[in-house]
Write a structure and sequence with these properties.
The chain contains no helices and eleven strands. The chain is mainly beta. The radius of gyration is 13 Å and the shape is globular. A hairpin with a 4-residue loop joins strand 7 and strand 8. Helices cover 0% and strands 49% of the residues.
Length: 112
């Protein structure tokens, strides 16, 4: 079973930027993406990307977040700009294989 390992989370001030990475233990030919879950809220879509590089975003992320993919490295990235306190959440990497595979998550905190 493929493993997904996220990195790049942390504490950032409002208006700042972070770049998340998710490395897969093997080649994934299907879509991958990012979801997030804030305390007391349901998990929501951040962005997904196909093997060919077509991205799709949640409404509140459009124009601020960019998802990308390096198939040679089995890695996807999430560039997050103009971060807001409401972006604070645990960010999970997802791969559309089998019933779906998830990483363990990385915390992103946006606070002054």
């Amino acid at each position: 079973q493929v493993q997904l390992v996220e990195s790049g989370g942390g504490l950032v001030q409002p208006g700042g930027s972070l770049r998340l990475s998710c490395a897969a233990s093997g080649t994934i030919f299907s879509a991958m993406g990012w979801y997030r879950q804030a305390p007391g809220k349901e998990r929501e879509l951040v962005a997904t990307i196909t093997y060919g590089g077509r991205g799709k975003y949640g409404d509140s992320m459009k124009g601020r977040f960019t998802i990308s993919r390096d198939n040679a490295k089995n890695t996807i990235y999430l560039q997050m700009n103009s971060l807001k306190p409401e972006d604070t959440a645990v960010y999970y990497c997802y791969a559309q294989i089998g019933g779906g595979s998830w990483g363990q998550g990385t915390q992103v905190t946006v606070s002054s």
